[in-house]
Amino acid sequence: MSIAELTDMELLQRIQQDDALAFEMLYLRLWEQLFVFAMKRLGSEEDAADVVQEVFASLWARRHSLEIRGDNFKAYLFSAVKYKVINQVAAMLQNPQKLEQVRETLLPAVNNASEVVITKELETILKQEIQSLPGKMREVYLLYIEQHRTVADIAKSLSLSEQTVRNQLGLARKRLKKSLQHAMLFCFF
Q1: Per-residue pLDDT averaged across 19-47, rounded?
Q2: 38, 52 in Cβ contact below 8 A?
Q3: d(CA 125, CA 105)
Q4: Whose C-alpha in 7, 31, 82, 131 is 20 to 30 A from the C-alpha of 50?
Q5: What is the pTM of this model?
Q6: Rounded to an integer, what distance in angstroms lies between the CA atom of residue 162 and that of residue 183?
Q7: 56 vs 118 pLDDT, higher one
Q8: Rounded distance, CA 165 to CA 153, Å?
Q9: pLDDT band for position 156 (50/70/90)?
Q10: Could you give the domains of the chain?
Q11: What is d(CA 37, CA 39) in angstroms, rounded to the nearest whole number?
């Protein structure tokens, strides 16, 4: 039997025995499917390719410790890509310049009614989560994100130290990241 005829699980078993050819075969077999999956969620070929590369790099690095039962290895890889996508989008929220890209990624132009509902739901969740931030934290976050003001400018206008502004931004990002990760899990997957 040639290596191309092996199942995904058989390839995994060979990968766990340091078979680089089996790894390459698995990569060639599944890369495109995983890429398309990531691309639909990220909207960027470069980001999708990076996510899939990270998943395969992690697979190789952890090949000796992986314990996957049954024939759900492909599902395992799709789950790994899903969580990398969620982390990628959450990381984008840390950068105000990428906020518009996040909105475009999470809230794409939609073609059917169910996507319209998901889009509106995510917009609502984001607005609610921003509104649920404590007063000063919300004010700092909105000045930074919506008005693109610098930390120094915000600190001066609100009579706060720059460190306090940075702390408030960090806490706001953590809270919003956590909330959006949960929302994305339910809406997109």
Answers
A1: 86
A2: yes
A3: 15
A4: 7
A5: 0.55
A6: 31
A7: 56
A8: 10
A9: very high
A10: 1-92 (1.10.1740.10), 96-189 (1.10.10.10)
A11: 6
